[in-house]
C-alpha cells in the first residue's frame, strides 16, 4: 500500500507510548427533559459538515438526535443523569460517520463534544475497537467504565501521537473534545483547531493514508496495552 510504503506511518505509530456562533435548536426539543444537560459541538472534517445527523447513546435514557446546522454546529438535550454518552454523526450524503464522547464537567448544564476525525481516533483508543462498536455496546457499565478521566487523558495523548507521526504540529490543541472549534465554511474562516484538522487531511492525502488506516493502527496499539475488545 502507498500508505505503508510512503511514510511507514503505521509502523511508527506502533512504537508510540500511549500516553460557531449560534446554531439549531435540538431536533428533539419537543420531547421534555427534566433538568437537562445540553451537549453541543461542531461536526467537522476541516470543513463544516452541515445537516449531519447526530445521535447520542448515553448511559441512561433513550437515544437523542439532532441535526447540525450552520458551521456544523449541533445541540441536543439529555437528562442530567444520562451522561456519559457516545455520539455518532452521519454526513448528509451518508458517506461518512464520525464518533465522539460527552462526559459531565462538574454540574455544568452544557457539555462540549466536537465530532471530528480527531475524536474518531480518540474513541478508537478508548474502545480498543472500531468506534462504531462502542456505539453499539453502549451501556451504563460500559460507558462509565471506559470514559474515565485517566482513559480520556490517554486517548488525548494517543491523538497527539498520531498527529506527530503524520507530521502535524499538535501544539495548537490541548483538548480535541472541548477546545473551541470554528469550522471553515462559505461564511467564516476556521480557527486554530480547524487548521489542525486541515493539516491532518493534507497529510493523509500526501501519504495515501485514510482515516480508517489511522483508526486501525490506534486500535492495534490500544489492544496491545491490554484494553478489552468490544464488538466490531
What does this structure look like?
It contains eight helices and seven strands, in the order ααβββββββαααααα. The protein is α+β, with helices and mostly antiparallel strands and 232 residues long. It has one domain: Carboxypeptidase-like, regulatory domain (Immunoglobulin-like, Sandwich), CATH 2.60.40.1120. Strand 5 (85-90) and strand 6 form a beta hairpin. Residues 1-7, 13-22 and 27-31 have low confidence and may be disordered.
Count the domains: 1
Classify the helix fraction into a percent range. 25-40%
CATH topology-level name: Immunoglobulin-like
Oligomer class: single chain
The number of distinct β-strands equals 7
Number of helices: 8
What does the radius of gyration come to?
Answer: 17 Å
Q: Regarding CATH, which class? A: Mainly Beta
* Largest beta-sheet details: 4 strands, antiparallel
For the largest sheet, list the strands in their spatial order.
3-2-5-6
CATH architecture label name: Sandwich
Global geometry: globular
Distance between the termini: 24 Å
Strand content: 15-25%
Tell me, rounded to a whole number, the average pLDDT: 86
Order of helices and strands: HHEEEEEEEHHHHHH
Structural class: alpha+beta
The CATH H-level superfamily is: Carboxypeptidase-like, regulatory domain
Amino acid at each position: 500500500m502507498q500508505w505503508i510504503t510512503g511514510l511507514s506511518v503505521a509502523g511508527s505509530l506502533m512504537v508510540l507510548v500511549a500516553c460557531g456562533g449560534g446554531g439549531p435548536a435540538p431536533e428533539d426539543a419537543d420531547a421534555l427533559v427534566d433538568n437537562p444537560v445540553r451537549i453541543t459541538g461542531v461536526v467537522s472534517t476541516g470543513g463544516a459538515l452541515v445537516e449531519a445527523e447526530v445521535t447520542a447513546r448515553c448511559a441512561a435514557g433513550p437515544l437523542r438526535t439532532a441535526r447540525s446546522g450552520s458551521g456544523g454546529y449541533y445541540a441536543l438535550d439529555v437528562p442530567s443523569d444520562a451522561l456519559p454518552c457516545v455520539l455518532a454523526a452521519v454526513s448528509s450524503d451518508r458517506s461518512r460517520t464520525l464518533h465522539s464522547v460527552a462526559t459531565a464537567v462538574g454540574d455544568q448544564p452544557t457539555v462540549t463534544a466536537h465530532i471530528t476525525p480527531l475524536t474518531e481516533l480518540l474513541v478508537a483508543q478508548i474502545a480498543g475497537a472500531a468506534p462504531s462498536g462502542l456505539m453499539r455496546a453502549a451501556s451504563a457499565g460500559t460507558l462509565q467504565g471506559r470514559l474515565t478521566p485517566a482513559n480520556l487523558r490517554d486517548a488525548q495523548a494517543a491523538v497527539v501521537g498520531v498527529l506527530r507521526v503524520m507530521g502535524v504540529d499538535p501544539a495548537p490543541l490541548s483538548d480535541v473534545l472541548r477546545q473551541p472549534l470554528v469550522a471553515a465554511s462559505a461564511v467564516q474562516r476556521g480557527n486554530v483547531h480547524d487548521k489542525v484538522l486541515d493539516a491532518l487531511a493534507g497529510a493523509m492525502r500526501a501519504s495515501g493514508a485514510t482515516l480508517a488506516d489511522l483508526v486501525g493502527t490506534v486500535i492495534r496499539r490500544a489492544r496491545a496495552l491490554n484494553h478489552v475488545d468490544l464488538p466490531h
